[in-house]
Each structure stands twice: as C-alpha cells, then as structure tokens.
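Re: your question about DUF2920 family protein

S., sorry for the slow reply, the queue was backed up all week. Below is exactly what I fed in.
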Amino acid sequence: MIVSKTYEIDSCDDVELDIKRESKLEFKLCFDDEKTPEALVFVVQGMGDDISSIQYVGDYMVRQFNTAVVGVNYHCIGNRPQTGSTFYLDDIDKLILKASCEAADIKLPYDVDKIQDYKQMSEIFHFVNNQMVEGKQKGNFTPNYFLNLHVSLQPAKNEYQNFGIMQAQDLLNVALYLKKHAPFDTMAGGG
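Result:
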C-alpha cells in the first residue's frame, strides 16, 4: 500500500552566518510498504511548480518505478507568495517610494516610515495610482508616465536566502536521517 508520511527533524544551524535555525526541517516521504524500494528519489520542490505536486509525483513514481520519493521543505522554501512569503517595504523600498513620489510631486497622506503592514502598503499604492490617474487627466503627466516602485518579499518562517547552502545541507540531512531511520530497508542498494 502506498504510504505518505510527513516528518519534522532537527537540521543544522547556519554556521557560516552564525544564525541559529528557528524551525524544524519538514519533509514528506512516499513509499510502498509492501515492497523494498530500489531507489530513494529526491524531488526538489519550489522550483516554479506547485509545491503540492510532490503528492502526485511521489505517488506516480512509487507505483511505476518502485522507489521511495522524498520532498523536502528545505530552508527558505517559502520565498515566494505561492509558498508563504509576504510582501513588505524594507528601508530601501520606502526610500524609493518617498523619493519617487517627491520627484513626481505626489504628496503622500502620511510618512512612508509609518507603513508597517501589507494593508497600509496597499492603501499607499492605491493612493499613488489614483494621484497618477488624476495627474494624467489634468495633463501633469504624459499618458505613458509610470513610477517604478519596489517591494520586498519576507520568506515564511522568518528564514532568509543564502545562495543554496542551507538548502543543500537540508537535503543531505534528510538523506542521512533516512539512512538511519527509514521505515524500509536502506541497505539493499541498487541493482
């Protein structure tokens, strides 16, 4: 029978940046409990595909190829809105917003430093958009004028990007964990 289990394990801290990891490492394991898998396959999630695709890919690979399939929710997998990140304005984004509006002579209803959440950010952007529409109607802006503004993404779980180092370590840590604790024989090896 096809089994799909979710695990949460300890993983490593970011020694390079001296940052302690705040969350457990989660991964999903799919296998047939009536057979010994011939291979352990890692599906790297979050590379543009729907993160829940591991359910379908894992099930298919287990049935068709007698494998065990692992999908790791590696460090900072939540770095896109689809995977849990949120929009916010960091200090540079706020500086760009303030300078751009001053250059366009758009008076904001309050100081950009007071923008603390998505709702306030959205309100300000709608305000700026409305000011530009009115300005274009009055001839203050050319019809094709636009402002280049910027927002940042805050990854889920208070994580951060570090160029794949933590992500690679997470995949290795899952492989090492499964070598010791897999619910099937890992010593048979390939053919």
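The chain has two domains: 2-83+156-181, 86-154. The radius of gyration is 24 Å.

Happy to talk it through on Thursday.
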